[in-house]
Each structure stands twice: as C-alpha cells, then as structure tokens.
Amino acid sequence: MATKTYDKKTIADLIDARLPWTEVKNMMSSYKDPDRFDKYLEILQESVPWDERILLPLGPHLFIVQKAHGEIVTKSRSGFEFGDYRENWKLKARIFVRDTNEKYEEIYPHLSHADPEWMELREFYDPIDGTLLYVEAVPPGYPIVHNFQPDIEAFYRDWLGRAL
C-alpha cells in the first residue's frame, strides 16, 4: 500500500489544529510516512526559544530534551528545567488543587463537578510562565502520579531504527 507523505506545513497545521477534520481523519487512518516523527520534531524545535535537542514531546508545552553535554531532562516550552527525565516532573511544577465546591465552580457549573470529598483536580503549571501543563483527577490524598517514564534509547533504537 502506498503511503502518503505530508510536508512540514501540513504537519504544522495538524499540530496547531488548522486542518479540516476530514484531512485529520485521513491522516489518522492511513499508514504513517516514515519521516513524520522527524518532521514533527523539526516543527517543535523551531517553535521553542532554546537550542537543546527535543527527543520526545510529552505534551504541547513539555518535552524531553538532550542538553549539550548529553544530560537528558524534562523541559517546558518556556525553558524551565524539571530535572532528569526519569524523575516525576510534576513535583517541580506549580500545583493548584481544586478540592472544594468553590474551587470547582470556578470552572464547572454548580452541581456539575465531582464531589470534593471523593475527587480532587490537580493542575500542574509551568513555574516560569504559568502555562497549564497537565491535570490529574485523583482521590484526595492520592500520591502525585508519575505518568510516563519512556525508555528513550529503546524507542530510538527499536522503533526509529537509529541510535539516540
């Protein structure tokens, strides 16, 4: 089956939600062009104000990057470094916890939110520019979740077919 390839502009439009749904659906439903991840990283790299090499995006404003001396860290778009990528970056973020009806009602209509005795929303913000990076919904007192600890070397070696 022939694989359609997409140029960087189309992929950038996908990232910025500027593509029509039919084209997005076609992209999602078809085989991926072999260099799409590289184009994606190029687009992301061009969009950040720092030079460290992006190895893997964790979200729209959060990345795993390789510093000039080889250290691999989690870094936000604004440039805040959360430390080693294997550690839970959330522990170094600014955290706002919605754990009362009043705090929930800042974002949900009355009676349309969870019971704060059963669930709290934790919002994790970039310490430099205040960008919302992630939200988790957990029972009160539950430890901060460490969502993802990728094996970067295996990803590059086994999935991308090249050394890190």
Task: Name the structural class.
Answer: alpha+beta
* Average of the residue pLDDT scores: 94
The total tally of domains equals: 2
Strand order across the largest sheet: 1-2-3-4
**Could you tell me the strand content as a percent range?**
15-25%
For the secondary structure, the number of strands is 7
Short description:
25% of the residues lie in helices and 24% in strands. It has 5 helices and 7 strands; from the N terminus they run αααβββββαββα. A 4-stranded antiparallel beta sheet has the order 1-2-3-4. A 3-stranded antiparallel beta sheet has the order 5-6-7.
Structural summary, described in words:
This protein has 164 residues and is of the alpha+beta class. It folds into two domains: 47 residues, no CATH class; 112 residues, no CATH class. The chain is 25% helix and 24% strand. The strands form two sheets. The protein has a four-stranded antiparallel sheet. The protein is globular. The protein starts with 7 loop residues before the first helix and ends in a 5-residue tail after the last helix.
Topology:
Blueprint: H1 8-15, H2 21-29, H3 36-47, E1 53-59, E2 62-66, E3 72-76, E4 81-84, E5 94-98, H4 101-104, E6 120-125, E7 132-138, H5 152-159
Antiparallel strand pairs: 1-2, 2-3, 3-4, 5-6, 6-7
Output the keywords.
alpha+beta, 2 domains, three-stranded antiparallel beta sheet, 7 strands, 24% strand
